[in-house]
Amino acid sequence: MKRIPIALTGSGHVSRAFITLLREKESDIEARYELRFDVMAVVRAEGCLFSGQPLGVNQVFKSGGPWIDGNPSWRQGMRISDIFKPAGRGGCLVECTPSDLKSGEPGLSYIIGALESGWNVATASKGALVIAFRKLRSLAASQGLALKFSGATAAALPTLDVGLVSLAGAGIEGIQGILNGTSNYILTKMADGLSYEDALEEARSWGIAEPDPSTDVEGWDSAAKLLLIANACLDTDLALEDVKVSGIADLPVSYVGEARKEGKSVKLLASAAPKKTGRGWRLEVRPTLLDMTHPLFHVNGTEKGITFFTDTMGSVTLTGGRSNPRGAAAALLKDLINIYRGRL
Ligand SMILES: NC(=O)c1ccc[n+]([C@@H]2O[C@H](COP(=O)([O-])OP(=O)(O)OC[C@H]3O[C@@H](n4cnc5c(N)ncnc54)[C@H](OP(=O)(O)O)[C@@H]3O)[C@@H](O)[C@H]2O)c1
Description:
This protein is α/β, with parallel strands linked by helices. It has helices spanning about 15-35, 55-60, 80-85, 105-115, 125-140, 160-165, 180-190, 195-205, 215, 220-235, 255-260, 325-340, and strands spanning about 1-10, 35-45, 45-50, 60, 65, 75, 90-95, 120-125, 145-150, 170-180, 245, 265-275, 280-290, 305-310, 315-320. The strands form 3 sheets. Strands 6-3-2-1-7-8-9 form a 7-stranded mixed beta sheet, sandwiched between helices. Helix 5 (about 125-140) links the parallel strand 8 (about 120-125) and strand 9. Bound molecules: NADP nicotinamide-adenine-dinucleotide phosphate (NAP).
């Protein structure tokens, strides 16, 4: 049995789902993979939860939030470097802080710190990779470490596994995806006749939309995921500014309703296509009319989907995958298992 220390950054929805899932799957993972993941530290901006023993969900969370006051495991002022160095090489950082698409922080510093200390990385946050994908990938490679980011690229929908592993040897000629569950839910409800505002309100009431949904509905979450998928699978070196983005907030409900009457559907489509002139790729996120023959036509509600167009394998489409913290936690767990059973 191989025991792997985990440092978890962030103590929000995904972190909580991740610790819960680890507990649930513990014996299965031990039996199937001879691996055991021990959450040794939960890192917050102002200190860490750390006791020298693996932490369970009840030692990290209380009454719905992170448990700090009165927690015997709380170490005010302890930093993540205090965990990496004594533990030596071989652990894994599980990065679950907010995705800041402008600075990449705090994930960027945490990921660099982990890789420089000989720790692998599995991240659900997008910011660091949006800002510094090549630099982080080179750093990981130079250290012989894994940098996995399924959780940041549509999570439970296995976009990178397919693009990087299943399509090995094929030329990818284009990618189209519905990569944001919140905006897809709103568009589905608008097609049913709800106004944008009512659809958003309903998404909020189900916990699907964030209190501030702007990153989702303005298309930036889809753009970040598209960028990461393109940079990884097409080997591009593009930045977020290279993605042309328009969202769904200004879309008239009549446009979405008319599309349905004509047997079509409006989707916030993220696409990578070869430039018409010259070399390189054009990345775009915009509301797009799909007809019934399109492989993503039936992706409704919070579902996501992706189609890879290839030279030798035809078009390959995946749809589904849970769009919630548990789905993100499951994607992190998948990455961890694959790192430690040698499937980099
Ligand atoms: N929610 C999903 O379904 C989902 C799916 C896929 C990917 N993701 C990505 O996963 C990440 C986490 O999402 P979430 O829903 O768990 O977000 P969340 O509930 O807002 O949790 C973020 C956590 O990060 C903490 N944090 C902020 N700054 C920090 C710092 N400097 N050091 C350590 N911790 C810090 C926050 O602490 P405070 O509360 O004290 O500020 C909070 O506990 C995001 O990047 C998101 O884009 C989320």
